[in-house]
Amino acid sequence: MAFLNSINISASGLTAEKLRMDVISRNIANVNTTRTADGTPYRRQVVVFQEAGKHIPFSEYLSDASRKLIGSGVKVVGIKEDKTPFKSVYDPGHPDADEKGYVKMPNVDVMTEMVNMISASRAYEANVTAINSTKSMAMKALEIGRG
Questions:
Q1: Phi, psi of 69 (to 5 degrees)
Q2: Angle value at C-alpha 84, between 80 and 90, nearest 5 degrees
Q3: Whole-model pTM above 0.85?
Q4: pLDDT, tens digit (0-9, with 9 covering 90-100), for 23-32
Q5: Which residues contact 121 (CB under 8 A, 6 or more apart)?
Q6: Cα distance between residue 134 and residue 5, in whole Å
Q7: Which of 132, 141, 131 is nearest to 5 (CA)?
Q8: What would the pLDDT profile of 56-76 be if each residue is shown by its tens digit?
């Protein structure tokens, strides 16, 4: 049934946004991690989303047959490391300080992460609202027959 497609699309958004919130939480938790398994400071991670479904060439997009296609939601194609440089902080007493007393800190900005967390939370709520609206429409449709 067509209404199940919309629930599946919203569910894919819920899954993707939950993963995004998990990665943001990991970034915040590691804001002061100066040493990882490979010996470098923690590097901020970013989730990459992509539209789920088939890629349609533009030449076919405007044809009558392709107008019937409905989106398939979103999928996560990867978690990439942010390549911005590490921050240097003067702290000569830190065990990871270099000869000049500087410590390389993670490239995580807590304010940016909090803004991203709010954005992910709002997107998650929007998908929940869409699912609830679809369920409500389905229930109203079932009530028509009871008349």
A1: -70, 140
A2: 130
A3: no
A4: 999 999 999 9
A5: 17, 21
A6: 10
A7: 131
A8: 666 665 665 545 556 688 999
State the Cα–Cα distance between residues 132 and 80, nearest whole angstrom. 32
Cα–Cα distance, 121 to 124 (Å, whole number): 5
Measured in whole angstroms, how far is the alpha carbon of residue 55 from the centre of its chain?
21
Distance from the first to the final alpha carbon of the chain: 22
58: left (phi over 0), alpha (psi -120 to 50) or beta: alpha
Residue with tokens 């304010």: 111
**Is the backbone of residue 49 left (phi > 0), alpha (psi -120 to 50) or beta?**
beta
Write out pLDDT tens, residues 74-109.
Answer: 999 999 999 999 999 999 999 999 999 999 999 999
Weakest mean pLDDT among 21-25, 34-38, 53-57, 115-119? 53-57
In angstroms, the CA 128 to CA 119 distance is: 14
22 near 46, Cβ under 8 Å?
no
Spatial contact of 53 and 71, defined as CB atoms under 8 Å apart: yes
Beta strands 45-51 and 74-81, pairing class: antiparallel
